[in-house]
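User: For a reading group we're discussing how well predicted structures match intuition. Take Thioredoxin reductase. Before you show the prediction, I'll give you the sequence so everyone sees exactly what went in.
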Amino acid sequence: MENIYDVVIIGAGPAGLSAGIYAGRATLKTLIIEKQRTGGQIVTTNEVENYPGSIREATGPTLIARMVEQAEEFGAERISDDITEVDFSDKIKVVRGQKGEYKAKSVIIATGAKPRLLNCPGEKELTGKGVSYCATCDGAFFTDFDVYVIGGGDAAVEEALFLTKFARKVTIVHRRDQLRAAKLIQEKAFKNEKIDFIWNSEVKEIKGNGLVEAMVLRNRETGEETEIVANEEDGTFGIFIFIGYMPQTEVFKDVIAMDERGYIIADDNMKTNVEGVFVAGDCRVKPLRQVVTAAADGAIAAVQAEKYIDNNFDE
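Assistant: Thanks. Here is the predicted 3D structure of Thioredoxin reductase, as C-alpha cells, for the group to look at:
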C-alpha cells in the first residue's frame, strides 16, 4: 500500500515541532522533515527569556530538546532531507527531496528564515574565521578580544549584550543614527560599560589572511572610510552580523503566494492560497517573529490541517 501521511511538516524549528506535537496528539500520521539542524534559529540562542515559563532555566537547545521529545511522544516521525521540489496541484500533495518522495493529504510549511548577508568583499571567505552570525555558537572564541556587532535591531543588541560576557569590548556598528531595538533592550546596552557605538556606518570590506585582521567602514553621511585593524597582540577580532533574515521559501516560488520579500502569505488560520497547504513561523508574513508566535502558528496550522482532512477525505 502506498505510504501517504496525513500531514507532512517541512521544517523542525519551534513552528514545525509545535505543529508536529498538535498533529501527533490528534492521531494524525505525521512526518517532520528538516534539512539541517533541528530547532532552527532558536537552537543557537543561549537565553530564552521571553518564552512564557522559560525564565532562569531554558536555553534554546533545552527548549527544542523538550519539543522534540514531546512530538515523538505523540507519534510524529522525523527525518533529515533537503526538499528540492513540491507538487501541490492534486488532492494528494507531493514533496520531493534529495533522499526521497513524500506524499500527504496536507502540508505545513515551516521552513523559517536565515541570516541576511552583508555581501561585502571578504565576508564569505572569512565566515567561520572571525565572521559569525551566531553569538551563542562563537562568542566564547573571542574571550578577551574586541568584537564588532553589525546591526541595530533587537537581535543585534541582544547578541551584543550576550557577547559582553566574553569580549573585552563590544562595538555596535549601525547604519542609522539610532537603534531600532526595543527601548528596554536599548537601555540595557547604553548602560553597559563594555558596549560602544559607531553610528551612520556600514561595512565596506572585511580583510584577513585566514583570520579577520581588519574591517573597512564607510560613513553613510560623509562618505569617509575608516579601517579598523586588529590589536597587534590579538591579531584578530570578531565580527558578528545581525542585519535581518531571509525566508527559506525559494522551493515554493510560483507555487504558493508570497510577498515581494519572499514571505508566504496566509490568513489567520495559517491557510495559504493552495487548499490543504498551511504555513507557520518565520517564513510567513507576520508582524512579530519570535518563538512564542512560531509555536502558536504551528498549533493553529496543525488544527486547521486536521479540519481540512476531516472535511475532504473519507475514512
